[in-house]
Fold this protein.
Amino acid sequence: MLHIEFPCTAEIADLVHEIAATMILTFDMPLEEAEGRINKFWTGFTFLEPIQTMPLLHETPDYWAKTIYYGPGVMWWLGEEGLTPTRYP
């Protein structure tokens, strides 16, 4: 079971579960790593109000999985060859 360490709505929790599943399948990582990367990425954030949740819901689980894995600001959509993931833990 995925443990989410930041306050969020049920809709965001569902999205986070989809992101974790995408990370597990795409990057062949254990649930614990996906969970840790997600919680680290959104440490200090709160997703309870529409103004907070809309940016997350605007993107796909695949987008968030790759953004969390490679890091913000990395333009992975131009090609993933040669990219390295963010350091974990």
About this structure: The radius of gyration is 13 Å. The chain is about 55% helix and 0% strand.
